[in-house]
Structures are given as C-alpha cells and as structure tokens.
Amino acid sequence: MRVPNAFALLCAIPAVHGWGELGHRTVAYLAEKYLSSAASDLVDNLLANNRGWDISDGALWADAVKHRRGYNHTGKWHYIDAADDPPRYCNVNYRRDCKPGPGCIVSAISNFTARVNDASLAQKQQKEALMFLLHFIGDIHQPLHTELLDRGGNDIHVNFSNRVENLHAVWDTHIAHKMRGLKAKEGDDAVLKEAAAVWAEELYAANEATVAVAECRDVSTAEKCALEWAEEGNAWICDNVLKPGVEWLKDRRNDLAGEYFDDAVPVVDELVAKAGLRLGAWLNALAAGRECAGFVVQEGERIEI
Ligand code: ADE
Ligand code: ZN
Ligand code: ZN
Predict the structure, then answer these.
(1) Protein residue whose Cα sits closest to atom 3 of ligand 1
(2) Ligand 1 closest atom vs CA 18
(3) pLDDT tens for residues 169-210?
(4) CA of 16 to the centre of ligand 3 (A)
(5) Is the pLDDT of residue 16 over 60?
(6) Which of 90, 97, 144 to mutate to test the pocket of ligand 1 (most atoms within 8 A of CB)?
(7) 18 CA to middle of ligand 3, Å?
(8) What is the CATH number of domain 20-292?
(9) What is the pLDDT of residues 191-201, one digit of tens each?
(10) Chain centroid, CA 90 distance in Å
C-alpha cells in the first residue's frame, strides 16, 4: 500500500479552490520552464524545506492552509467576485468587486508581490508570499474565480459525464481531467504530477500564449496587471463559461461533457498556458528586483511551514 506523505494528507482536504491539483501543478511546471537562473535560485532557496517540495507542491500550499487556524481569512484571496450580469454583460470593477477589508485575488497578488522582495520580512514570510503567488496567478486564470454569480458557479449543479457536479468544480477539475485522459476523481499525487509535467511540456512546445502575454510583467504595477488578467478571465464568462445561460447549464438533459466540453478545451489550454507564462515572467521580474535590492541568498535554510 502506498504510504501518503504529509503533503498528500494535507491535500486530502476535499474543497479545492481554483484550478484543481492538475491545473495548479501544470501552471507551476510550465512557469518553471521560463525561469531565469536567478528566478530558479529564488524559488529553490525560498521553497527549500525538509519535505523536498518542487515548485508545483509550493503552488498547492495556499489551498492546503486555508482551512487551518490562522489562515481562514485567506479564503477570500482566491477569487474576485465580479458583480456583473452574465451572460449578457461581463466586467470587473476593482472598487465594486474587491472589498478593502477582506481583499480579493487582485489585491492579494499585489500585496504578495511586494512581500516576496520585502527585506524587512522574515524569510518564512517571504516564502509564504511566494507560495501564495504561485497559487493565485494560477487561480486568477480560472474564469469562475472572477465571477460572483452563484458563488462563482459553486451553486450551479450540472450534469457532467452523467454525474451531478457543480459548474465551478467542472472548470476547476473535471474539464482538465477529461482533456488529459484522467479519471474524474483521480487524486494520486504521483499520477497528477506526471500528467501535469506532460501537459506543461506540450504547452511549452506549442508556445501558445507567448505572443499574447508579452505585456504585463512590471512587478511595481502588480495591481494593474492582476486586474487585466482578471478582466481577461471574466470576459470568458460571457464568451464561453456561462454563454448557454444558467437554465440550459442546469438542465440535467444537457451533458456538459459533450459539445460544451469541446468548446471549453481550447479556452482551458490557453488559460493554463497564459498562467504558466505569466507566472514565469513574474518570478523572473521578482528575481531581478531582488538582486537589485541586494538580498543575500541564504542557501538551504529549512523553514517549516
Ligand atoms: N466563493 C465565492 N465566490 C467564489 C468564486 N468566484 N470562486 C471561488 N469561490 C468562491
Ligand atoms: Zn485557490
Ligand atoms: Zn476554484
């Protein structure tokens, strides 16, 4: 019998926000392919710990901790609830949709971008900031993480492959699993890591998103960049995710694993590719800024999170 490690146990928490494990690991592995040597060192040094995590394990940490004592408030940072009117009208309005107290994914990306390179913070805090970024730059590319309606589709129950699923989970996990030939409930870390590595390699080879995302990589304007990414994801809500209308989606006679899935495939491929490329560029910019700030690299320090 396979003995689960500590991380596998943490990941067994059922509610996954954002892309599921496959999506997050793929974004992280793809980003890794674009890293400069300075960024690669930054990730290796900050993530270094006694569990031997790779970058994709670091990208899952934010989901694992949000139910832990002291981290409950971080749940709101995984999304921005755009109060628009899909499928008729989609838009994100920062002032309307990101409440200053709890914050949202856009403000979280902005805050944690600043914190990774904040020399006044303990290394543990910088490490947490990095892991939040690895996760949130993935999440912001899941369209339903930029939509208020029915709690980002969590309350829309649909038929996917003759099972009742919620639309949010369909987009977090089920479409990606079907695309990559995985079983609906595939949860084995080793299987998902391998599937993510293969998907990342394919996206890297296809280089699908390169031209589209040469733009936002200025870490000093993180809020502006994150808002642009959120707006892009939110536009897919009207153009694809909720396009057939909530009533059609809820109708159990319509199996979303059919034509709806076929239409979603290129969108998911594009969004995961963009997330990986953008995360890679972001980490490269952070590493460059960190060198300028005169950070001393503390090799191999083991910080328990
Ligand atoms: N909870 C409330 N809104 C949500 C969203 N857009 N995505 C994920 N979880 C949510
Ligand atoms: Zn998340
Ligand atoms: Zn989600």
Answers:
(1) 151
(2) 8
(3) 999 999 999 999 998 777 899 999 999 999 999 999 998 666
(4) 6
(5) no
(6) 144
(7) 3
(8) 1.10.575.10
(9) 999 999 999 99
(10) 21
